[in-house]
Amino acid sequence: MELSSREIWTAVHGMVLGAGFLLAFSGGLVGLWGLRSGWVTAEGAKKLLRQLAVATWGMAILAWLAVLLGTYVIYPWYRAKLPASATTQPALVTGAPGSLAAAPAAGVDLTRFPKYLLLSRPQTKEWHEFGMEWKEHIAWFCPILATAVAYVVARYGRHVIGDAKLRRALLILFTVSFFCAAVAGAFGALINKAAPTR
Amino acid sequence: MTSTDDPSPTGGAWAAVLAAAIGCACFGLVTDLSEMSKPVSKLLTFHTPTGDLSGKSTIGIVAWLLAWAILHALWSRRSIKRAAGITVLSVILLLLGLVLVFPPFVEMITGN
Hints:
Chain A has 198 residues and is mainly α.
């Protein structure tokens, strides 16, 4: 049983930071939903607000770490350029059927170039052209929205309890941040299954 | 029970909400500009191994923080009366951002 350093970082990105955010969401949503006058006592509200502020800031930090690690550490491994000798082999870069078989002859192991491995076959190229293209961009919405929610809960918590409009706006931001994280997480897992970053 | 008639202003909270939506829309806009133009994409390559995603994300973050700073300066001492309007505007901007980074839409406008 062995994991390369790239596999460890990929696991930290997806299974620790990303999954941590997704798992924490339901708790945060319930907390935010229940944070309303009439549902909680003054003492209960105080306690709930403190917990929710810690939870939402924790989620925002997880989201930031996940996108920064994903963008600046893992993504460069995923999109690593093929050696110059390989790019002269049209079959390798155009995704023509059978190009994968041509790779060993050209001396290039495409499993070291996940993006090009996906693009090399018509059956897998959508994982890059749709999946990765969507994931790499939508993921960035998550920390922005999570930070806004955490800031408002921590700084304006008492208003969130009494102001239904503000609470509703936060619930929308929080839910969209979850949707973005879910899209990024799901495609990340599926792409890493089709073309693992090793 | 917790009082619901707190007199302190909530403008700062609404500034954070709207700024986050503006940041997402700007990120989407920069993403599409980069996809439509090779020179823009090259210009946004702040960090070569990451490619233009480094510039798109940096511009998106800067736009978000700038919008937040401006709105906070304008609203933090005020109570917002048209809160529903800000929510609607935020939802529209969020949807715009989501559409702008959706690959079929990007392909449609770039013609690729």
